[in-house]
Inverse folding.
């Protein structure tokens, strides 16, 4: 009887795992093989000792200096947010209205699916280069110590947070172009927060903005994305009448 119960429990868990995996596949617009492959066209990260790497080091110290500004340090900590829901909340003011699954379901839907898709573009270059993160390189604490263990062995180039942040700014600007300057400012600062926090080199962040823009353009060849974006624009127009 115990053996049968064990088999049934294993089957149930396996079925649940498969369902979750399928849900994740259904959520994204493009696969990791369909989004732009940065390994083939973005430059590799700067080599230690190069002039570009010297700039990365100078920016690391710039970031540490920024931590002395309490408000900027707190902002960098907030912008360590990983989930789309948390990001949407922080982008709401720049966008001009609250963004959430409850209050703006169509806008949230396209953001959630598109940001998760754009994030996939960082997968291959991260695995290829496995660049050491600044806080590991200098053996110094970051601004968000609770994230250090997970990110210590995760490649630094490019920055997944920056890909998300710049991608969200691009998406929201398409829905509300009147807010473009505020959105781009926040999207830019979102990437700089990763330098300030000590998790990324400046070149990681700069490359990520290019990668997010490339993936954003690729999304416009996907009909499902275009349909969801049209619904988001319609919802925004209705809410701002």
């Amino acid at each position: 009887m115990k053996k049968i119960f064990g088999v049934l429990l294993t089957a149930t868990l396996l079925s649940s795992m498969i369902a979750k995996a399928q849900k994740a596949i259904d959520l994204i617009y493009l696969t990791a093989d369909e989004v732009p492959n940065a390994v083939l066209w973005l430059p590799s990260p700067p080599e230690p000792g190069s002039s570009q790497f010297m700039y990365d080091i100078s920016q690391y110290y710039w970031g540490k200096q920024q931590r002395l500004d309490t408000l900027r340090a707190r902002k960098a900590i907030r912008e360590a947010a990983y989930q789309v829901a948390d990001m949407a909340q922080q982008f709401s003011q720049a966008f001009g209205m609250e963004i959430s699954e409850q209050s703006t379901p169509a806008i949230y839907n396209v953001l959630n699916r598109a940001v998760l898709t754009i994030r996939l573009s960082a997968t291959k270059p991260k695995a290829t280069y496995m660049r050491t993160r600044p806080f590991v390189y200098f053996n110094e604490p970051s601004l968000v110590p609770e994230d250090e263990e997970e990110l210590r062995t995760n490649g630094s180039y490019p920055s997944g947070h920056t890909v998300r942040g710049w991608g969200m700014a691009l998406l929201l600007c398409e829905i509300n172009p009147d807010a473009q300057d505020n959105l781009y400012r926040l999207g830019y600062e979102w990437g700089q927060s990763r330098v300030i926090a000590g998790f990324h080199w400046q070149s990681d962040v700069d490359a990520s903005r290019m990668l997010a823009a490339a993936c954003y353009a690729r999304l416009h060849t996907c009909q499902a994305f275009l349909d969801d974006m049209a619904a988001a624009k319609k919802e925004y127009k209705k809410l701002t009448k």
The first helix runs from residue 2 to 27. The two ends are 64 Å apart (CA to CA).
